[in-house]
Every structure is written in structure tokens, then in C-alpha cells.
Amino acid sequence: MNREIITGILAYGMSGKVFHVPFIHSHPGFKLHAITERNTKQAASDYPGIISYDTVDDLINDPSIELVIINTPNFTHYEYATKALKAGKHILVEKPFTATIEEAKELFHLADTWGKQIFFYQNRRWDSDFSAVRQVIESGVLGKLNEVHFRYDRYRNVIGPKTFKEEPYSASGLMYDLGPHLLDQAISVFGKPDTFHKILGKNRKGTKVDDYFSIHLGYPNSVNVFVHSNLLLVDALPAFVLHGDQGSLHKKRSDIQEEQLLKGMKLTEEGYGIELSGNEGKLTLIDETGKKTVHSVESLAGSYLPLFDAVYDAIVNNTPYPVTRDQVLTQIEILQAP
To answer: Helices 101-114 and 77-86: crossing angle, nearest 10°?
Structure first.
């Protein structure tokens, strides 16, 4: 690595501890310099030598910081991104990037004016399960695709304690929580849809925000892509189901990184990112005689490090970042549609 990018992270909750700090800390191209902790001061004991700021403004105004990671509640992204860009920082922003297209475009203009880069934290592109599905799609073994389903389901029948997800704030609800993951995966493979149709639902007792969505994305040549999420799914369906004229693929959501990181596993430990046995995809192919054959699809190890590699290369070498502005604008257009 040519140099270290001095980095600050705006929050040390679950996302900071699991999805950002382990990668920034272990990556030779970054230096973990500071974290914002409003109340409990834990980061410095976990990572000796870093600064624990009391406020977001204190961290953003630290002149030594080059990159700010914005991993705060959804409705704060636009405000904090604006402050960080005006302070001369590059920014890496968790999903959803903003609540509206207007906010996104304002931030793009601001970044261009200040000569800074914006990066979108769409880590699920690097999940082991999705990587396996993408490989099958790109191989062409399914033939001409006609129906594709991406799902991200959970069972949580009570209202959660995080008010920014459960109260009708800007960019709250399941659509803005898990929708960005699914839409980014679909858009990264298939591009911008010609049409889309969205259904939202409120099913939990007392919910103030959507806890169900289903979106149909229409693509040329009758390729129909559906993304779904449901907080009341007791018996989970396969996360990825694809049908083509030469075969079908079923694959569970089985990336293990989040679970391992929550348990404190290090990126360098043996077995990191490797799916558990029994979670292989099922690929069923049919030949010209009508004979079916069933194959097991194993996943490569998952790792979010390539996302941070891409951020580093963009800042140091001006290499294009794989998650583009146009892709994010397409995502937000769908998210904010009624």
C-alpha cells in the first residue's frame, strides 16, 4: 500500500463493531483514527490508541481525518454527509444513501464542488451466497432467464427498540432497511429496470412502518425479477430462486460473516467467511433430450474486504468504485416511490 488513509467512524454500535472497524483496523491501507461514542466509551479499550469523540461534529472537524464512515441512523445520512463533505472529507455511507433522489443529487454536486469522493456501503454484493448466484447467472448454464427471486426474510413479530427503524422518520421501515440490499444486488446484475411495481404491507400489531414489501422489476426480453422481504416469515423460503429455459437454481441465504463477526471472530482466522456444510445451492439442469441433472453449487468464502480495497483504490489511484451513482439513484427512485 502506498499510504494509509486516516479514517473516522461516526458510531460504534452494531454496524461499527461488525461491518466497519474490523476491516478498517485490519486493512493495511487504512488507519483507524477515531470513533464517535456519545455515551459508553468502549472503542479505545477494544482498539488502543484511537480517539473517542463525544460528538459527530468533533470527529468530522478533526483535520487529520481523510475518510469519514457514516453509519448512523438512516434519517441522519444526508445531514452528516453534507457536514463531512464541507469539511473536506471523503465519505463512505451506509445504506440507504439518502431518503430521496433530491438529497442524493445535492450531495453529488457538493462532492464534485469540493473535489471529494462518495462511496456507498453495499456490502451484500460480497456475500458468499450472492457471489455464488452471480457466478451461475454469468456462466449462462440456466439459459435465457425468465423469473428471478431475491429474498431477505426474518421473523420479528414485535416492534423493535430502534426508533429510527420503527417510527415514521425519513427513510424508516423495512423498505429502506433491507430494500437497499436486495435492490443493489438485482441492479448490479441486471442493471436499471424498464419498469417496476412495488407493494408494501404493515402486518405486525401496532406497527407504524412497513414490515413487508414485494417489488417486480421488469427487464427486456421478458426477464422478470422480484425482490421480497417479510418480517413475519416463520419458515424461510430460499433467498435466491432463478428459472431459465435450461435450468433452475435454489440457494439459501447462508453468508456467515455477520454471525462470525458478532462472535468476535477475526478476519484472519481459519474458516472465516466459509458457509456451513449443507447450505450449498441446488442447480437443476435439463438437456435437449429432456433429461434432468442435479448439481451442488458451493460458494467461495465471503469477505467484505474487497469493498474496502475498492474504497482505497478509488482514493489513492482514482480507480472507479464498483457501486456507481447511477445505480444508487435507480435504487433510491424505487425506494421512495409510493
So the answer is: 10
* pTM exceeds cut of 0.90: yes
Write the DSSP string, 161-183. S-HHHHS--TT-SHHHHTHHHHH
Axis-axis angle for helices 325-336, 101-114 (nearest 10) = 160
Beta carbons within 8 Å of 190's beta carbon, 6+ residues apart: 148, 217, 219, 223, 225
Q: How far is the C-alpha of 289 from the C-alpha of 214, rounded, in Å?
A: 36
292 pLDDT band (50/70/90 cuts)? very high
Cell representation of residue 220: 427486456
- Write down the residue that cell numbers 473535489 correspond to: 115
* Domain around 262: 128-145+236-301
Residue 215, strand partner residues? 198, 227
Residue where the block lists cell 456462466: 139
324, part of any domain? no
Distance CA 132, CA 313 (A): 25
Radius of gyration of the chain (CA): 20
Q: d(Cα 108, Cα 31) in Å, to the nearest integer?
A: 26
- Do residues 293 and 284 make contact, with C-beta atoms less than 8 angstroms apart? yes
Report the pLDDT averaged over residues 227-251: 97
CA atoms of 315 and 72, how far apart (whole Å): 22
CA 2 vs. chain centroid, Å, equals: 28
Residue 59 has pLDDT above 90, yes or no: yes
What's 269's DSSP letter?
S
**188 and 256 inside one domain:** no
Q: Is residue 330 part of a domain?
A: no
* Same domain, yes or no: 241 and 192: no
DSSP characters over 73-135? -GGGHHHHHHHHHHTT-EEEEESSS-SSHHHHHHHHHHHHHHT--EEEE-GGGG-HHHHHHHH
